[in-house]
């Protein structure tokens, strides 16, 4: 595990490298963000943006989605993985938001995770990105990069969230989520991390443990 000084250095390098990074998903409201995040499970953000460009044009808000049946929504999102389940959840969540919250997405984790299709990670993205409320969502990139760097030694996203929140100042939780995602996308890929190009290689636990087995850069 990196010591406190090394943890500060890791976070500082991540911040310098990915400062200003944001969600790759496109949306114009918290409701649209929620739909986009639900669609993004097992589907990449570019594909989600292609779907939502037309979808949000036709159905911009909870009131419009609440009028749909899952069967009507399915063909509009069928290029997503798990689209039948997503259609069912999005329509059900839209009806609840329309009927119980006057069309506005609620802003507590408890209320959010009570919506169909909204788990802890999605709720944290909505809180942080949609409402600016401190939360640190752990997706597959955040989980992998945090554990490789030694910022966490965890087996579940929930444990990773708790470990990172204990290390990172609250006001940086939302930004740290983006830093770790972008580092996972650009350099620390799941199968072939590009450690030779990584600004964190001197501080990375995984790099230290695997330096003898990692291929040298060409
Ligand atoms: S040194 Fe390698 S494993 Fe460590 S964070 Fe960088 S790319 Fe990932």
Task: Give me a quick take on this structure.
The protein has 218 residues and is mainly α. It contains 12 helices and no strands.
What value does the average pLDDT take? 95
The CATH class label of the largest domain is: Mainly Alpha
Structural Rg: 19 Å
What is the H level of CATH, i.e. the homologous superfamily of the largest domain?
Hypothetical protein, domain 2
Overall geometry: elongated
Point out poorly predicted stretches.
none
CATH architecture of the largest domain: Orthogonal Bundle
Report how far the terminal alpha carbons are from each other: 30 Å
Bound molecules: iron/sulfur cluster
Q: How is the CATH topology of the largest domain named?
A: Endonuclease III, domain 1
Tally of distinct domains: 2
The ordered H/E elements are: HHHHHHHHHHHH
Helix fraction?
Answer: 55-70%
Total number of β-strand segments?
0
Largest sheet: none
What share of the residues does DSSP label as strand, in percent? Answer: under 5%
User: Helix segment count?
Assistant: 12
Draw up the topology in text.
Elements: H1 4-18, H2 30-39, H3 45-58, H4 62-66, H5 70-73, H6 83-101, H7 109-113, H8 120-131, H9 140-149, H10 157-167, H11 173-186, H12 205-210
Helix pairs in contact: 1-11, 2-8, 9-10, 9-11
The structure holds iron/sulfur cluster.
């Amino acid at each position: 595990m990196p010591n406190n000084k090394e943890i500060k250095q890791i976070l500082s390098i991540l911040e310098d490298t990915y400062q200003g990074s944001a969600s790759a998903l496109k949306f114009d409201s918290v409701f649209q963000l929620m739909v986009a995040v639900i669609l993004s499970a097992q589907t990449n953000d570019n594909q989600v943006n292609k779907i939502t460009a037309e979808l949000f044009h036709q159905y911009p808000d909870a009131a419009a989605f609440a009028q749909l049946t899952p069967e009507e929504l399915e063909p509009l999102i069928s290029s997503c993985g798990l689209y039948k389940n997503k259609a069912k959840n999005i329509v059900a969540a839209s009806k609840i938001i329309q009927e119980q919250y006057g069309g506005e997405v609620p802003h507590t984790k408890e209320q959010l995770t009570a919506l169909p299709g909204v788990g802890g990670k999605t709720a944290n993205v909505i809180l942080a990105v949609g409402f600016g409320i401190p939360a640190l969502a752990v997706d597959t990139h955040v989980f992998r990069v945090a554990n490789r760097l030694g910022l966490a030694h965890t087996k579940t996203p929930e444990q990773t969230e708790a470990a990172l929140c204990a290390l990172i100042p609250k006001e940086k939780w939302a930004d740290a989520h983006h830093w770790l995602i972008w580092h996972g996308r650009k350099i620390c890929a799941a199968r072939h991390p590009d450690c030779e190009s990584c600004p964190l290689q001197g501080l990375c636990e995984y790099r230290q443990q695997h330096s003898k087995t990692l291929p040298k850069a060409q």
